[in-house]
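Q: Could you fold this chain for me?
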Amino acid sequence: MTQKPVVWVIGGGLAGSEAAWQAAQRGVHVLLFEMRPVRKTPVHQTDRLAELVCSNSLKAVDPLNAHGLLKKEMLRLGSLILEAALQASLPGGKALVVDREIFANIVTEKIEQHPDIEIIRQEVTELPNDQWTVVATGPLTSDALAEHLKTLTGEESLSFYDAISPIVSADSLDFDRLFFQDRHGWDHDSYLNAPMTKEEYERFVEALRTAEIHEPHFDEKIPFFEGCLPIEEMARRGLETLRYGPLRPVGLKDPRTGETPYAVVQLRPGNRDRTAYSLVGFQTRLKIPEQRRVFRMIPGLEHAEFLRYGAIHRNTYLKSPKILQPTLQLRDHPQILIAGQLVGTEGYTEAAMGGLLAGINVARLAQGQPPVVPPLHTMMGALIHYITTVDPKHFQPMNANFGLILDVPKRMKKLEKKRFIVRRALEELEQWIRTHSLTDF
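A: Sure. Below is the predicted structure, expressed as structure tokens.
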């Protein structure tokens, strides 16, 4: 019997789990390295693969939305992460919202049961020179491996800091002051809303502005990603900033008054049993006592019990436009592929997408086949194109968005343009799949 090629995948998060699955499905034997629980991170709480540490939403599912199109493309390629998310889904309106525990358990069990994936629980601090390897260690890459990557690539590893939202117990909420409603009218059970009067809102904003924050133990200025600003940072940008951001009341009416509230705090179910709710858009670095004090000013949360507090954590990513090929191989070390948030994509689905492509390519390379690059007009291809070609001086992590799609006719109405983008993307994806036999396994 011919022995299968062996590839390494380092990191058991969304990207690493996806990469391991895709590679193993395509005929190689995978050694999946995950340092937890031997070495813990500041935010993970379990040893489960694909544990979600921030929001439990994977964003939009409608293909006329950029995130929805990305999901459709990935599902066509057999994405483990998205199939698990669908199995673990909760009511979420336009968003794919999951039960964290069920989701992580599904992914872990699938990986553990795959005959060609071997999980090794240890930290990797240096990369091998003669081994096909996918690095998918994510925003919490260990210091030792980050330093090794700096030396290997000759580029400084960039870093910024994400803040995660708090989660509160459903039993501690005053439901008489709250109401269920989805601003888009899709699923009115998907969001719990806390309405605020003008006076309540202004007191809340002032409290956010003056509350004590947790200061990180480093000297550099924190370059927050604009798509994930701490709520107190947004409050400092102006009195009305939150009303046009996470506290916008548009599309919501309080059923007790029939009126649109001045501002609304939304809470999203964190699990199927609805025993926990996360505060939508409430990424924060407030000190824990301040979180209790300030967030209990929200109507209905006066006695909130916090199951998880917001926290600040490091998010490391590489200067991909200078060091990465569109195949996700390092230019100077093509035996090493990088995937997930480490390449400079931002978001759960985007991270898994990188793992999917890296998994496909590492399997092809290990078997003597040429690597592939997604078509430019797909959402996958547009993201890969951005992170590998944008001016490195202005490189910042990027979410899926239609603004990345090239060659779109200008004289089109908005909806017509979206339909054009989606139709062309799916047609090109099908042709790409057939050309390279990407689902023949």
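A (continued): The chain has two domains: 6-157+318-436, 163-314.
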